[in-house]
Amino acid sequence: MSQSLAKQCNEVKERYDTCFLKWYSEKYLRGAANADSNECSALFKEYSACLHGALKDRGIDKLLEDAREDNKENDATFMGRKKCKRGYSHSQPCLLTFQTHRIITRIWIGTGRR
């Protein structure tokens, strides 16, 4: 498995990756589970919180927020979805914008993960 963008998140990322790959290959691909029943969600939340802190420490969180804001209209148009609104609930998830996806992909590739 690859390392996390933030060294302090490596351990939780490895636990999440292991859990997710096992769930995906042994349950999801075999039809024994659906995307809403991912048993690794607690680990993902833990890793996400760790990574968010690291992104904030490096000032990358502001870049992501700016990219989301700058491309909200385009993403809503081209992806045929409603615009994201701050304070969305879990029943109305916010769309990951194309520009944000590009930034995350660049960060991900920069960590050696492909």
From TrEMBL:
GO CC terms: cytosol; mitochondrial intermembrane space; nucleus
Keyword Disulfide bond applies: yes
Cited InterPro entries: MDM35_apoptosis
Keyword Aminoacyl-tRNA synthetase in annotation: no
Keyword tags: Disulfide bond
One matching Pfam family: UPF0203
Gene Ontology MF, one: phosphatidic acid transfer activity
Protein's GO biological process: phospholipid translocation
Family, per entry: Belongs to the TRIAP1/MDM35 family.
Name of the protein described by the UniProt record: Uncharacterized protein
High-level lineage: Eukaryota, Fungi, Dikarya, Ascomycota, Pezizomycotina
